[in-house]
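Worked Example 4.2. Read the sequence first, then its structure tokens.
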Amino acid sequence: MRLTWLEPPFSVCRLPARAAIPAWSAQPGAFFCVVRTTDELSIVCEQRLVPAGVQAEGPFLALKVAGPLHFSLVGVLASLLDPIAQAGISVFVVSTFDTDYLLVSTVDRDSATKVLIAAGHSVE
């Protein structure tokens, strides 16, 4: 797989399930994601946009898998996550219609890059 690092740093935020999608999170940028469940509203956005007092984790950098990926492909995430897990690197995964994104702590960027290259992937 061919992967590209996206910047700037991102945060993963948790808000109450019934909360409105906050205007601060929906700024134009390279990557923005909202998922609502009965338990929570999760938002991935640029870290600089997250106001004080919001429950958030980060900073993360996002690795974008070159796509689009066809829905019939099998093992895409496994080929990426297995070597990263074996290296003890935690990730947060977001999948879209066209591709997948792996969010990795900024401190793990170099290690994740090395591990993925060693596993046969291309990282830009």
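Now turn to a second chain, presented in exactly the same format:
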Amino acid sequence: MITILVTGGKGQLASCIKEVANGQKELYFIYVDYDELDITKEDEVQRFFIGKDINFCVNCAAYTAVDKAESEAATAKKINVDGARYLAEACKKHKAKLIQISTDFVFNGKQSVPYKEDMAVNPLGVYGSTKLEGEVVIANVLKEHFIIRTSWLYSKYGHNFMKTMLRLGQERNTLNVVYDQVGTPTYGIDLARVLINIIQKDTDKYGTYHYSNEGVASWYDFAKAIFDIQKSNCQVFPVGTVAYPTPAERPFFSVMDKAKIKDQLGIEIPYWRDSLKKCLQNK
């Protein structure tokens, strides 16, 4: 039996893990949210690991409010940096492996070729900076780690772009959506399968990996696909980022190169639109 601690247990990705893990008898999951385990409290983290024989920790807990982070930098750092450090230290002490979920926001989005794991990082805002600092802390503390950078996560759970578009599409006849920010949507269920695959393989190919679905889209393309698949009458119009000023600057290009995770871990990756269809059919 493999015991897996999942932090951020009520969030979107943890909910996807629950769905995918249903029926996996050789895996025992412990899901905790901040009310059960506050990862920003070192003593609490250390105590929680005692006597549980945890083999893997999947850290889905994060401060992800990109714009709010600009005015709440200390809180973002406590969760994304200190929390990551305390989990890594507990994993090291109790001989567990850590899977850290990170983000495309560690890059500034100013190049035009897909980002590889070893390319220069240069986050534009507090959210990306704290997630990057969390990566560095983990790598310095614990050899037995996997950092999975992902992008544009969506599913039927939690708050995400797809669910926002579906809601707005019922409320309005037209929508303006940004067309000049480009990346790749990631279906949470697909990412959850990858995480469970890594756990089951129990590989020692530690390090940083990129995972999103295959293909490239703008936020406008993503929205258009949602409404096309849903056969919605809501019309979507492309607008530039300048039409929607935000406290945090967004990367214009967030496409990540996934060759490493495919080659080293044998992961097969579905095309983003195919996964979107599956999600909308099962929502």
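Notes for the reader: The chain is about 40% helix and 20% strand. The radius of gyration is 19 Å.
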